[in-house]
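Sanity check. The docking grid for LTUXU72L depends on where the pocket ends up, so I'm generating a full predicted complex first rather than guessing from homology. Inputs follow.
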Amino acid sequence: MNTLLIKGCHILTMVEKERPWVGDILIADGRIAKLAPVIEASASTVLPAKDMVAMPGLVNAHNHASMSLLRAFSDDLKLMDWLDKKMLPAEARMTPEDVYWGTMLGIAEMIASGTTAFADMYVHMDAVAEAVRDSGIRASLTRGLIFLQDDGGRRMTEALDLIDKWSGAADGRITTMLGPHAPYTCPPQPLKEVVDLARSRRIPLHIHLAETREEVEKIREKYDQTPTEYLQELGTFHENHVLLAHAVHLSLEDIGRLRGMRGGVAHNPVSNLKLGCGIAPVAELLAQGVTVGLGTDGAGSATTLDMFAEIKAASWMQKLHYGDPTVLPAEQVLRMATIESARLLGIDHEVGTLATGKRADLILLDLKKPHLAPLHDLHSLVAYSATGADVDTTIVNGEVLMRDRKLQTISWEDVYRQATERAKRLVAGL
Ligand SMILES: CSC[C@H]1O[C@@H](n2cnc3c(O)ncnc32)[C@H](O)[C@@H]1O
Ligand SMILES: [Zn+2]
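Predicted complex below; grid placement will be based on this.
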């Protein structure tokens, strides 16, 4: 049996209220076999980890990984212009091979910055699944469904094929969802069909919601409803597990509509800042018991997939919004990036905290850096001072995907060459 012993690290289990402590972690058969102050066991591999922090891998609850090909191609635009005039035309040119290499680029960045699982919505999802399988990361995959042009049901067939073919694949690292893109791209009839199908087949849903004021105005004009009301009236929240991306523009009634929902909200603060969308009512959602996790959105808007940037932005935006530094403290925002995001992906029974029996999805952060000394409060240090570049080691399902900052399952030279060449072609003349 393959075993891995991590020795002498600071341990942040992210189990609620558990304080950090120093000890060893034994991994066997892809799972955490033991956590203790000292483990006297022989192991196939021993990782000395003094001056490092072990914590659960970060879970990016909303992404479009292959959009990394469109990073810094078109910035400083309003969301609808950015999407309609730049992103969608570039994406229409993408082949499955482009999406494979674009996803690999996104995954390389995620592994290098401590993300061990992500929720993705995109096109050519077989290629995304292949990249997840080949790289060793964990993901929940969704074929994005935009119903504005008739395509004879092709997209829906692709969405269901993805679910049939890839659910539980790659040693259980791949799970799937159904992904109607957003209220403004999904008219009532096809959206209701997707929602009902999700309920009858118990498939989780992943959808953008209430990202901009413009979206709220559009839905008001068309249906005389808020976007959240629109989803509710179609039965979206009835029994379904729903992963809502953004949820920035919610009325008090909308927040009430989400109380008791299964699933919850993926908050994407950097993307919301960059696109000038607004500040999501995170504190109010939490007060109503809604699960709130963290995501980056695609690098086309967020610019990077570094979840440590999201952790800082989430906490500091809420503090600024409420004029109150006690809002979203360090430990809580770290829980949002780990166990709460895992809940949104429906994998919290397997990952999101460090505990015996859970899958070994964890990262080691190197604390021996000028900006990470001295050590007073580990939650604060990790949430507010660390960046993705401080991640030394990334492990998923017990497999080491990065060690000493070197990617182990991905050839960075190949990804760099493929991604840079393909990206040029995708945006030429746009
Ligand atoms: C049809 S696959 C998913 C689709 O979503 C687009 N997208 C990326 N970022 C955002 C965002 O912030 N709001 C709405 N839609 C977004 C992406 O370009 C794909 O076309
Ligand atoms: Zn998105």
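Relevant for the grid: The first strand starts at residue 3 and ends at 11.
Also worth noting: Residues 62, 64, 208, 245, 297 surround zinc ion (ligand 2) (CB under 6 Å).
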